[in-house]
Specification:
The structure holds 2 protein chains of 2 kinds. By secondary structure, chain A is an alpha+beta fold. Chain A is 30% helix and 42% strand. In chain A, strands 1, 2, 3, 4, 5, 6 and 7 form a 7-stranded antiparallel beta sheet that branches. Chain B folds into 2 domains: 5-327, 3-Layer(aba) Sandwich (Rossmann fold); 332-429, ANL, C-terminal domain (GMP Synthetase, Chain A, domain 3). The longest helix of chain B has 22 residues, at 12-33. Classes of the chains: A alpha+beta, B alpha/beta.
């Protein structure tokens, strides 16, 4: 139920991101989601890949600092207000969200939003109890 | 103007007689009064009676900065503590400071050598000296101050910092001589531009710049921007503070006040004394100090010594502007910093392994800007930016506490710091001196 997210440290320098995408392309990694949190001099790239273990290994072999973080992927209907439903449930149940981002594609006409929450087990439990669906993998 | 013609323009042979007399007296005195020196001389198998000529100084053991720290605070005092009228400590940041203690005679000597330096830079009793060196435990401020008094100058003890006020005083009091670090002078030049002050409208004729490495290029820039003649001054707390040597109007080497500070150049590896004109480590013996005299102190500064017929008329030995250090010490904003200190801080912070690089540059402000690049290790990498920002803040705070200087922390990717033979290059000094 938990999804492995690969986080990568990137300096804000020309060509660093394309170096990552080159490595992933050569390793034939399929990406499902990607987002960057950036500051003045560095960024953290977060990747959801179909092959997370291989993705991590490739990046580490190429001297990137990368690690696995567990996140929740929640499947939502593709309609206005769907995201708010989850947010409301999380708020009511004190699930603290650290960050979230959307994936690159629809799955069976549904969108998937990735959530990093403080307590992942609690988060997953709340999703389940509220009749919502967390993806297991891509 | 030459402050002390009989001392500075003395016949060289006569000076040697005085130096030998002072050296013999000092060696006997420290041997008899300071257990530290007695032990060292005994171990080296040398007694005061072995000093028969100036060359015999090479029989004496060296003194190092570590030994000064080990004997802190009063282990090397050569007189009664009650005879000390002032103390200073070094600007070093490696934990234990180094003490310099002055008797009344030492204070007179310090003012004397500093007055000579001011005169070498063209000062007369008619001048207005604006002293922009820091006052306090640092020898820079008060050393220049005492010399300026001795010479009888109109002295402005403005100390370092507060640039707008510096410039206002320069304008209002018509300062003719400026004393500060070379980088600070350029910083003032920038600030003056912003305030609409043109140095051509000010009265400065000379600047005495030291406590920091600089170069001929920087001299040109300072002279153009501040519309004055720039003079290099050298000194260090362990010896006396500022006043050890200074450039004269010939701008060709610094005249060493060798009747008080006996210089030698040694091979830093073997400790052997090198002949005049050869490059090596500068060593000083303070042959006339009473409070904390020092025998053959290894300065770690690299230069060479020579005699010439200087057009100024002084016969004292000259030293070249410093060429470097025998260790990896950096001088950042006038503060002595060793890379090992930064390494210790990083090792104390458990999140980091010390893969780091210190990058020093002078930006638009002309002040030293220090960036510390730290490679991000898996042990402290996080998927959240705020965690990494927190680590940056922690490192910066610890370094500020340890070294007293602000550094910019930059997190960099692993293996991005260039390594030579597997060892990372610790210091990149981009300062164009």
């Amino acid at each position: 139920m938990k999804v492995k997210q690969i986080s990568v440290f990137l300096e804000n320098k020309n060509g660093r991101l394309s170096e990552v995408t080159r490595i992933l392309a050569e390793g034939e990694i399929s990406l499902r989601a990607m987002t960057i949190a950036d500051t003045a001099d560095f960024g953290i790239l977060r990747i959801i890949a179909e092959q997370p273990d291989k993705c991590l290994e490739l990046l580490q072999q190429n001297n990137f600092t990368a690690r696995v973080t567990e996140v929740i992927g929640v499947r939502l209907d593709d309609r206005p207000g769907a995201l708010h439903d989850v947010m409301q449930v999380f708020e009511d149940n004190k699930v603290n969200i650290e960050y979230l981002y959307s994936t690159l594609m629809l799955m069976d006409d549904k969108v998937v939003i990735m959530f990093k929450v403080e307590d992942i087990d609690h988060g997953l439990d709340i999703i389940k109890k509220n009749g919502m669906e967390a993806i297991t993998a891509f | 103007m030459i402050w002390n013609k009989s001392a500075e323009c003395d016949n060289r042979d006569d000076r040697k007689v005085q130096q030998l007399y002072s050296l013999k007296k000092l060696v006997r005195h420290v041997y008899e009064t300071i257990p530290f020196y007695k032990k060292k001389f005994d171990e080296a198998g040398v007694t005061p009676d072995d000093i028969k000529t100036l060359a015999d100084i090479s029989k004496l053991p060296f003194t190092t900065k570590d030994e000064l720290r080990d004997t802190y605070p009063y282990g090397l005092l050569a007189c009664d503590k009650k005879d000390i009228v002032e103390i200073h400590t070094s600007s070093g940041t490696t934990g234990t400071p180094v003490l310099a203690a002055y008797t009344k005679n030492d204070m007179d000597m310090w003012a004397e050598v500093m007055a000579r330096c001011l005169c070498m830079a063209g000062a007369t009793p008619e001048d207005v000296v604006q002293n922009g060196y820091g006052y306090g435990m640092f020898t820079g401020g008060l050393g220049v101050h005492y010399g300026s008094h001795k010479l009888g100058c109109h002295t402005i003890p403005v100390s370092s910092g507060n640039t707008r006020r510096q410039l206002m005083m320069m304008r209002d009091f018509k300062s003719t001589i400026l004393t500060c670090t070379p980088s600070y002078s350029l910083y003032m030049a920038e600030a003056a531009k912003e305030m609409g002050i043109d140095f051509k409208d000010l009265s400065l004729k000379s600047g005495i710049f030291g406590a920091e490495p600089w170069s001929d290029n920087m001299r040109k820039e300072i002279e153009e921007k501040l519309n004055l003649q720039a003079y290099d001054i050298y000194g260090l707390t362990e010896i006396v503070g500022p006043g050890v040597s200074n450039e004269c109007e010939a701008h060709n080497g610094l005249h060493v006040n060798e009747d008080h500070f006996f210089p030698e150049i040694i091979d830093p590896k073997t400790g052997e004394v090198l002949p005049e004109g050869e490059k090596g480590e500068l060593v000083f013996t303070t042959i006339t100090r009473e409070g904390t005299p020092i025998i053959r102190y290894r300065t770690r500064d690299i230069t060479w010594l020579w005699h010439d017929d200087c057009p100024c008329g002084r016969t004292t030995v000259k030293m070249h502007r410093l060429l470097g250090r025998t260790d990896d010490m950096l001088i950042l904003r006038g503060v002595n910093v060793f890379p090992s200190q930064i390494e210790n801080v990083l090792m104390r912070i458990e999140e980091t392994e010390p893969h780091y690089q210190i990058v020093v540059d002078r930006g638009d402000t002309h002040l030293d800007e220090v960036e510390l690049h730290v490679e991000v290790e898996p042990s402290f990498f996080s998927d959240e930016t705020r965690n990494l920002e927190k680590i940056k803040e922690k490192i910066a705070a610890e370094i500020k506490q340890e070294l007293g200087i602000a550094v910019i922390i930059k997190l960099v990717e692993p293996k991005s710091i260039a390594r030579s033979e597997g060892k990372a290059k610790r210091v990149v000094d981009k300062r164009t001196l």
